[in-house]
Amino acid sequence: MKRWIWWLIAGLLSLAGGIIALAYPLAATLTAELFAGWSFILVGIFVLVSAFNDQGWGARAMAILLGILILLFGISLVANPMAGIISLTIVSAIMLLIFGIMRIVLAFSTELSQLRWALILSGALSIILAIMIFSNFPQSAAAVLGIFLAVELISNGISLIVLAMARKPDTQAG
């Protein structure tokens, strides 16, 4: 077995995980929220540990404060996943709105006219998604993060499968 097969297996697993997440968006949303919570807990611990390697009390105090805040946020997400889902959904919708507006503004300020329509389309899509999330809030919170996770897993799976096929040795040569 060549190395390309591992890329193919990873791609197929990611694709399957994305399809499952798309079929069960609430479970995928909860999974994404808990993953984020545990990630914040780990980052908070690492920041706290690294704070003791900082020079001077000012930097050390800021790192400790930041580490405690990150750790508490992670604990909050893990301890109360439903509130975490709602807050992460709001943050996601706000980010979509801001990035969409930024892309549209960038489209009109860029000198490359061939990029203008792609930026406008991408920005408009982000704004539409943000409006869709806000217009159906809080019901949208049950599925949004799971759908985001599903789309990412499917996209990742497809790209890994394509990469594996590109790395696959040509067996018909000869």
General description of the model:
This protein has about 170 residues and is mainly α. The chain has one domain. It is built from six helices and no strands. Helix 1 packs antiparallel against helix 6 and helix 2 runs antiparallel to helix 3. The longest helix has 29 residues. It is globular and about 55 Å long. It starts with a helix and ends in a 7-residue tail after the last helix.
Topology summary:
Blueprint (H helix, E strand, L loop, with lengths): L3 H20 L1 H27 L5 H23 L1 H29 L3 H23 L8 H24 L7
Helix pairs in contact: 1-2, 1-6, 2-3, 2-4, 2-6, 3-4, 4-5
Nearest-integer average pLDDT:
86
Envelope shape: globular
The helix content, as a percent range, equals: over 70%
Q: Give me the secondary-structure category.
A: mainly alpha
Please give the number of β-strands. 0
Radius of gyration: 21 Å
Give the end-to-end Cα distance, rounded to a whole number of Å. 20 Å
Order of helices and strands: HHHHHH
Key terms:
globular, mainly alpha, 6 helices, 174 residues
Can you describe this structure in just a few lines?
This protein is mainly α.
